[in-house]
Records
---
Amino acid sequence: MARKIVLFMGVSLDGYIEGPDRDIGWHRVDEELHQYFNDELATMGGFLGGRVTHELMAAYWPDAGKSPDSAPQEVEFAALWRDMPKIVYSTTLESADWNTTIVRQVDPDEVRALKEQPGGDLALSGADLTAAFLEHDLVDAFHISVHPVLIGEGKPLFGPRHSEIPLTLTATRTFGNGVVILRYDRTR
């Protein structure tokens, strides 16, 4: 059975992944939610992201969790992120560390071949990369965390589409901080 490409993203209730100036301070990630993400992402076979997402992660996670004041969930995720194979889709990124491969463009045949390799599912993130994967019908599942806030403007997760993508709800979970996880599979 082929691995799935699973979109993992957090959004505001009005559908934005970030506010103006890339603000994500409105995300409600507490210890309970962070542990849930750690448990889910630890089962993945790799992370797929764009340059912006990768640079944000690479600026923080290599050294995160090294402070004695770090939460256990942060220490755990930092190790997970450093060790997990990562593919960054970028036409401009020159080099990347931390078990990262740079790919210049989304080639549907290469992605389908990647899905056929052994290992866990692949976690996709980033709105622009998601749009490219959706354009080529490469996203198999959606794992969206909806944060209880309206931010009014910013970068939406999904841009305009010209075709419908039917989905089947497979699970929901509500956290004490008001975040709701919505899990959908593609209806094929």
---
Amino acid sequence: MAEQKKTNEALNVEDALTQSEAFFIKNKKAIIGAVVAVIIIVAGVVMYKNLYADPREEKAQAALFKGQEYFEADAYEQALNGDSIGFVGFAKVADQYSGTKAGNLAKAYMGICYAHLGKYEEAVKALDSFSADDQMVAPAMKGAMGNCYAQLGQLDKAASMLLKAASEADNNTLSPIYLLQAGEILVKQGKYDDAVKAYTTIKDKYFRSYQAMDIDKYIEQAKLLKK
């Protein structure tokens, strides 16, 4: 009986390792979730409706418009660097209209485009230069940076940024996503207690979220791996 128990525990740990590794790899590949893109697009629409008081803002928003179309079509190279028919690209819009709200928004688009193109260092720089105090957009940018750090193998920075994003968002939409990602990175690092803490926050504070539905599984996996 004792031997059988040990065998079962070993199998559980192995299964936990396999699932944890698979989840981590899957999330690394899905660098920037659709939620971030949606937030940016929504922010762009809001700005589009409210920026026409200043002529420079109007020009900046007009310059941004074509890039948003490329972005929504997943044409990240053209969105970032422009095309041959007049659109200069988010990178130049951000530079030419520095100091405008639309120019600032272009930095966020730049960062996400860089991330989708696998240029994670450039993505982090662009996202870090973007400024926002909105409770959805600002944490989303930090979450995107955290995922980029994960791709760069800078796992301490990745986990820290994701936890910060979750704390700043403090809602059932974004926080559980970032806590789950942070937890998987912490498991990868062997920081099982910290991972359990991140997962438990989802269970206790964001229990209405989709991620909370099977969070007990991740908590148990982290605890098994610690043994």
---
Amino acid sequence: MTKRIIGLTGNIATGKTTVTNYLANAYNLPILDADIYARDAVSLGSPILGAIAQRYGEQILLPDGSLNRQKLGEIIFNCQDERNWIENLIHPYVRDRFLKEIAQSSSQILVLVVPLLFEAGMTDLVTEIWVVSCSQEQQLQRLIQRNHLNREQAQVRINSQLSIEEKVAHANVVLNNFSTPEILLKQVDVALTTRSSD
């Protein structure tokens, strides 16, 4: 039997973490998280962190030598070319980690959480695509609250991703996070059980 590999995506602050935690806790599914691999890619002493420090100077590092994420965020969310440069370093590393983990896993169902599934060209790694969606106003409010950003900063981060409409158009499953977490998670139950019996 071939593995069922769910690519869970959506835009920033749409509710991916809620869905991820539920799949892990309620269904005990292995979660492979692109954000964790991306953090590993720039860990202290890594070649990628070295390349970043060489490009932006010591100011991009914290006193302990680790990456100053806030400073990097200011650079890449305000300049498309710099964001592309960083992503070209990190995405291949993340893809390799995914391939290794998929090959080593004995589980029949895996969940790959990839916020930039489309942007990073990783759709070929999964057998189905789930997109968590909400209105842009809900997204803005959640992001402002969660990341302590002003409206303009939050909008810049939202604009840096492919629009949610484009992602929804390519989804096998759309999870609408417009109302309560309970309603969202019921959709997850349905998607998991109906698609596994396809």
---
Amino acid sequence: MRSSNPVFSRRGFSRDNGYAGFNTAPQAGYAQGNPYAQNPYAQNPYAQGGVQYGAPPQAPVTTDRMTMDDVVVRSALTLGTVAVGAVLAWALLPVSTTSYGLAIGSAIVAFVLAMIQSFKRTPSPALILGYAAFEGVFLGVISEMYNSRWSGAPFQAVLGTMAVSAATLLVYKAGWIRVTARYARVGIAIAMAFMVVMAVNLLLVAFGVAENGGLRSFGPLGALVGIIAILLGAFFLTLDFKQIEDGIAYGAPRNESWLAAFGLTMTLVWIYVEMLRLVAIFTNND
């Protein structure tokens, strides 16, 4: 099963285009807890000697396995690249028509790089860091734009993103949310429907059918849509956490920690952008 994040196409930790934690076989074991110990259909794509059923994760052929430290380091590098790109764009590109054009161009390049990585079978640090750099330029320009009209909005959006991420991690680690195959399917279906609705709304606005941004207006309706988008971002975070957890448990190769960093970065960017809009909406209503 392929999953997750705003582009809906990043691969999970699996060599067979599947998702280590969400197999297509019956999911009886998930209802009781540990999918490795209790699901007779659970499989480890990295196990020595091929697929093994009904057994806990086994050591892979290589001992160069992904660890949480690897994920933290790669995520710090990727998010740090986003931050550096944003700071430089904010400092060097004053708000103007030219900077808006550069922001749109950077967003397009970042999207293309993200799509290329999403369809690659192996992670490419160059693609991932390139995506992060261009995404940073885009975020720097729009953050400066928002700050020029709603002073302090980017700082509040950063705090909001951190709060949502911390709350999601707490809920996930506490076991209040179980990331099962059904949970993932339903959540991704809702997210895809949301994206289709937003695309239609964009077309209606572009052709003048919907005024003031339509569903993305800076009013109560826009706030509701923004809250839904942030909740979807939190959903994607739970998938990211599950993929990281499964990757470590199954002994994924160390270089796949770049995939974890890639997924987390895309999700956090999603949440930040939506949080930025939400802060602006609430500031407008004050």
